[in-house]
Amino acid sequence: MIKALVSVLLVLAAVSSAFGKYMPKTGKRIPQTLSRGWGDQLVWAQTYEEGLYWSRSRNKPLLVIFHLEDCPHSQALKKVFSDDNQIQKTLDDDFIVLNLVYETTDKHLSPDGQYVPRIIFVDPSMTVRADITGRYANRMYAYEPSDIRLLISNMQKAKKLLKSEL
């Protein structure tokens, strides 16, 4: 009897957690290796060049995440980032997204050095938004799990800057 009750509770917990996750407008989750765990339901650009093209053609800002798979700081940020429904919905609706585990040759994407994790915003005119930064002076584009509200605020700022420039 107790085993049956525990089984039912586990099933209910699994089902309820599935309903709490943000689902994209298409209504289905698309398994992708490009997400690398940062948001499996999002459509991710494959390369920086593709991200710039999509950003320009769809008139949406590009959010670029630099990270490493074996970096504990990247892993901690990824967990909070992928679990936050507001971030996932905003990215799905208003951004082109790209995550990179390697550095690009574009030096504009590392204005204050090459470190991970770092998040850079690029507008559709292909201008890196150096004015949208995190809270650290020595790593201006770094975010920690505790900085998730600042990241959301910076995402809103990137959207407003795009609208004001139209």
Automatic annotation (TrEMBL):
Primary localisation category: endoplasmic reticulum
Transmembrane domains' residue ranges: none
Keywords, ordered alphabetically: Endoplasmic reticulum, Secreted, Signal
GO cellular component terms, A-Z: endoplasmic reticulum; extracellular region
Lineage: superkingdom: Eukaryota
Pfam families the UniProt entry points to: Thioredoxin_7
Cleavable signal peptide: 1-20
InterPro entries recorded: AGR/TXD (IPR051099), Thioredoxin-like_sf (IPR036249)
Cellular localisation: Endoplasmic reticulum; Secreted
A single BP term in Gene Ontology: intestinal epithelial cell differentiation
UniProt keyword Lipid biosynthesis, yes or no: no
PANTHER family: ANTERIOR GRADIENT PROTEIN 2 HOMOLOG, ANTERIOR GRADIENT PROTEIN-RELATED
Protein family according to the UniProt entry: Belongs to the AGR family.
Protein name: Anterior gradient 2
UniProt source species: Seriola dumerili (Greater amberjack)
Lineage: Eukaryota, Metazoa, Chordata, Craniata, Vertebrata
